[in-house]
Write a structure and sequence with these properties.
The structure is a single chain. By secondary structure, the chain is α/β, with parallel strands linked by helices. Strand 7 and strand 8 (about 295) form a beta hairpin. The longest helix is centred in the middle third of the chain and has 24 residues, at about 235-255. It has a 4-stranded antiparallel β-sheet with strand order 1-2-4-3. A 4-stranded parallel β-sheet has the order 6-5-10-11, with helices on both faces. Strands 7-8-9 form a 3-stranded antiparallel β-sheet. It has 4 domains: about 5-85, Arginyl tRNA synthetase N-terminal domain (Gyrase A, domain 2, 2-Layer Sandwich); about 115-160 and about 265-380, HUPs (Rossmann fold); about 165-255, no CATH class; about 400-580, Isoleucyl-tRNA Synthetase, Domain 1, CATH 1.10.730. The two termini are about 35 Å apart. Helix content is about 50%, strand content about 10%. The chain has helices at about 5-15, 45-50, 55-65, 90-95, 130-145, 165-175, 200-215, 215-230, 235-255, 270-285, 320-335, 350-365, 400-415, 425-445, 455-460, 470-485, 500-510, 515-520, 525-545, 555-580, and strands at about 25-30, 40, 70-75, 80-85, 115-120, 150-155, 290, 295, 310-315, 340-345, 370-375, 380, 455. The structure holds arginine.
Length: about 575
């Protein structure tokens, strides 16, 4: 059990003994660490509700604590804050119980079946800067829920079913009409090798889009091709499958490098078989109605103060669209995967889209009321001008180029700081890769999910300040202390009562992981984990300065301190893993 839960129960019982709800007993880290380690603020709201005096209630609660509590000091301050400080022995024995643990006091939650929808790139295009945030935030949210014991499926939800694929089919057909994919009489025996590479697609994609814009005949052909594709014309399907395969291979390489792993490589096309029956059912049940030629679901309610446009199920030409696919995907996830919670880590600018989709899903019963549908939107990566990050010539930087840029800068920084200088080339490259990715990810994840931030390569790659490289450096230092202790035959042992402020503060910091991880999950906000990882390393640095482990003469204290290093490293490794950040062995 986490320390804060343990303490909250003690105070909850004391509130209950005075006839108040136990939830008033919640204990949190103190806002004034100079006065106390923890505090309980429940007396104010409890007294307010019951019409009593909060200070008197705080006193009564404090008096009701049994004599065998783990506190060295419990005091009342201001209008009724209860300030709490633990005995050093209790703190030490609690931290000792974390040694060798994989959960650090965090209790698994009752498992829920969840889908995290993140990544969301479109096929036939390279990943660009805009794909960074949904990928790494989504990955972190997935890992966090998994750590908390949930059954989590990550789905990339590829954009693979819209008009661009019709345009590409027509473009390729115009250039190479002899290919068997375009023979309307053929139904099988298509080439096994792709007629296009990812580079071809990259080049053709904007050309086809321009053709569609400028040439109405081309555009009409492209729309017809989409309808044929979606209704299963074999040649188009086969060609589309090749485009999808080469794209997925290219996209996967970049995600692999980012350590972003999807369980499912589903896409908008995956639920194509559901569209017809779903639409029929919605018409039959009276949910889908005709409006201006299109088929829509009204999603406004009487409580709405502003306009919520109707959900479009089918366009006037009968074609399905982005909204339709998301609705059918919910049906699929609920029915096939048994999901009770679906979290979308997608750009905040799509908020209205998800509002409409979720309303339509609940209204029609595609999602029952107990299914949680949640759009946790991400902000953008901005350039120094405060606008979405672009290259110098105004183009969109590919994600691959962005990663290369940061890794190169990380390699430079290592050199400037005379780190990793004496290792062989292969190890140097590996370390620079890890440092660069840590810089990139931490620079991103330290911001709240929904806010925009400015990409600042110099700040992100610095070894000073709140950065990925600083955290890795801290972790590597812990590793080297442990290696050196091992070489000298010093072993870690039981955590004993602290002898300085710095080891006490580190112990307190080590008790906080459970609530941090829970908060990050609750708000789908990895920045809580990022912040705590930094606090932990900063606390460790102060401890390391003040407590000279290898020179300590009291062997019980020395082996206790070494245990603190081990626990700190283990917690930090977990926290960074939840952020998708890997630690090098040394540097
Ligand atoms: N492919 C979409 C886009 O580029 C993002 C997909 C997000 N996920 C979803 N279920 N709609 O805008």
């Amino acid at each position: 059990m986490s320390l804060s839960t343990t303490l909250s129960r003690i105070f909850g019982d004391a509130f209950a003994s005075q006839g108040y709800d136990a939830s008033y007993g919640e204990v949190v880290p103190s806002a004034r660490p100079d006065l106390a380690q923890f505090q309980c603020n429940g007396a104010m709201p409890a007294a307010k509700k019951a019409g009593g005096n909060p200070r008197e209630l705080a006193q009564a609660v404090t008096d009701a604590l049994s004599d065998t509590t783990p506190f060295s000091d419990v005091g009342i301050a201001g209008p009724g804050f209860i300030n709490i400080t633990l005995t050093d022995d209790f703190l030490a024995s609690y931290v000792d119980s974390l040694s060798g643990s994989l959960r650090f006091g965090s209790d698994p939650q009752t498992p829920r079946k969840m889908v995290i929808d993140y990544g969301g790139p479109n096929v036939a295009k390279e990943l660009h800067v805009g794909h960074l945030r949904p990928a790494i935030i989504g990955e972190s949210v997935k890992r966090t829920f998994r750590f908390l014991g949930h059954d989590v499926v990550g789905d990339v939800h590829l954009g693979d079913w819209g008009i661009p694929y019709g345009q590409l089919i027509v473009e390729i057909g115009d250039r190479r009409p002899e290919l068997p994919f375009f023979d309307p009489d053929r139904v099988d025996g298509y080439p096994a090798a792709s007629p296009v590479t990812i580079e071809d697609l990259q080049e053709l994609y904007p050309i086809a889009a321009t053709h569609a814009k400028e040439d109405e005949a081309f555009a009409a052909q492209a729309r017809a091709a989409v309808v044929d594709l979606q209704s299963g014309r074999p040649g188009y399907r086969a060609l589309w499958q090749h485009m999808r395969n080469v794209s997925v291979a290219a996209i996967k390489k970049v995600y692999d490098r980012l350590n972003v792993e999807f369980d499912l490589w589903h896409g908008e096309s995956t639920i194509n078989h559901r569209l017809e029956p779903m639409v029929k059912g919605l018409i039959a049940d009276g949910y889908a109605v005709e409006s201006g030629g299109a088929l829509v679901i009204e999603v406004m309610t009487d409580d709405d103060t502003k306009e919520v446009p109707p959900f479009i199920l089918l366009k006037s030409d009968g074609a399905s669209l982005y909204t339709t696919w998301d609705l059918a995907t919910i049906e699929d996830r609920v029915e096939d995967l048994g999901a009770t919670e679906i979290i979308y880590i997608v750009d905040v600018r799509q908020a209205l889209h998800f509002e409409q989709v979720f309303r339509a899903a609940y209204k029609t019963g595609i999602a029952s009321p107990d299914v949680v549908l949640d759009h946790s939107g991400n902000g953008t990566v901005n350039g120094p001008d405060g606008r979405p990050f672009k290259t110098r010539d105004g183009g969109l930087l590919t994600l691959r180029e962005l990663i290369d840029m940061v890794v190169d800068r990380a390699a430079q920084r290592l050199e400037e700081n005379e780190l990793a200088t004496e290792f062989d080339e292969a190890e140097k490259v590996e370390i620079a890769e890890k440092v660069g990715l840590a810089a990139l990810k931490y620079g991103d994840l330290q911001n709240h999910r929904s806010s925009n931030y400015t990409f600042d390569i110099d700040r992100f790659t610095s070894f000073d300040g709140k950065t990925g490289p600083y955290l890795l450096y801290g972790a590597v230092r812990m590793k080297s202390v442990l290696r050196e202790a091992a070489e000298r035959g010093i072993e870690s042992g039981e955590v004993v009562a602290p002898v300085r402020d710095q080891d006490r503060n580190l112990m307190l910091q080590l008790t906080r992981l459970p609530e941090v991880v829970e908060r990050a999950a609750q708000h789908r906000a990895p920045n809580h984990i990022a912040e705590h990882a930094y606090e932990l390393v900063a606390e460790f640095s102060r401890f390391y300065e003040a407590c000279h482990i290898l020179r300590e003469e009291d062997t019980a204290v020395q082996s206790s301190w070494l245990a603190l290093v081990e626990i700190t490293l283990a917690e930090l490794t977990l926290l960074l893993d939840l952020l998708g950040i890997e630690i090098p062995e040394r540097m």
